[in-house]
């Protein structure tokens, strides 16, 4: 087959193909399947957490799913690589269901060119849905284009309506969030939420298109890095920092660019204002102990609320909102998001998400 003309067909060549795989998948029936770590992690949050969690699974060449048989895992792989897990699920039910589903599912070319396919009820669609039921958690429906959800997947009636509804809700909130996450100032481009390599402590590593910064093994003491976006004029600015890997201690806040040293901890500099994972707020001469309970845990979510109208700052930690830091009542007119960390710290910045 000539390659390069159909993405769908090219990706099918990779499914369960040892030649293009770097991980073995051991199933309940002890059958081995094969997959590509990068594709699995990119397409599924479940696989991403399993294969890139820094634990032993991150380095081993085999993973096990003792509760999923090989047939079910083939459906997972089918979706992960091509988006069409329902085809194999229908095959398990009946040939009629399989043939009808093949007619209903368009090719990638038909999707891109908005070509309608014939609408025909799927035989035994409830049984197909039952086959898919234990595998739904591996499918990130939020990655699927809205048009595909509305025009193709929802009418098949093989995915629970609650899941489809949750995706619609998420997408609606995301659209609104991208416009309004900085109130009074519209910034619709999420590329603003990235760490700045030109304003970064030595040896800190920035990855994932600028969204993640981490300190490699042996790096200490604290180094700092600021985000690219400047926060100035009027408005209320809000963003999240996810501490994917905690260090002793983790610090999140804001800084001014004047006389700021990224090779040092932000909280000891006059132009740095940060909240630490010990629950204290630090700035020379304007510190506050016991602002909130400590958050020494991986996955902690800190939201920074910067009110440039009043030049004040407050924080939300793991969903709990705290008051303005009383000692910080006259912040400068231009600030940047900043964090301080050392090994093994790993921090992600993103638009504020409720």
Automatic annotation (TrEMBL):
Q: Which SUPFAM superfamilies match?
A: Concanavalin A-like lectins/glucanases, POZ domain
Pfam families tied to this protein: BTB, SPRY
Query: In what residue span(s) does the B30.2/SPRY domain sit?
Result: 172-354
Q: Please indicate which superkingdom the organism of origin belongs to.
A: Eukaryota
Listed under GO cellular component are: cytoplasm
What name does UniProt use for this protein?
A: Btb/poz domain containing protein
Q: Which residues form the BTB domain?
A: 21-89
Cited SMART domains:
BTB, SPRY
Matching entries from PANTHER family are given as: BTB/POZ DOMAIN-CONTAINING PROTEIN 9, BTB_POZ DOMAIN-CONTAINING PROTEIN 9
What is the source species? Rhizophagus irregularis (strain DAOM 197198w) (Glomus intraradices)
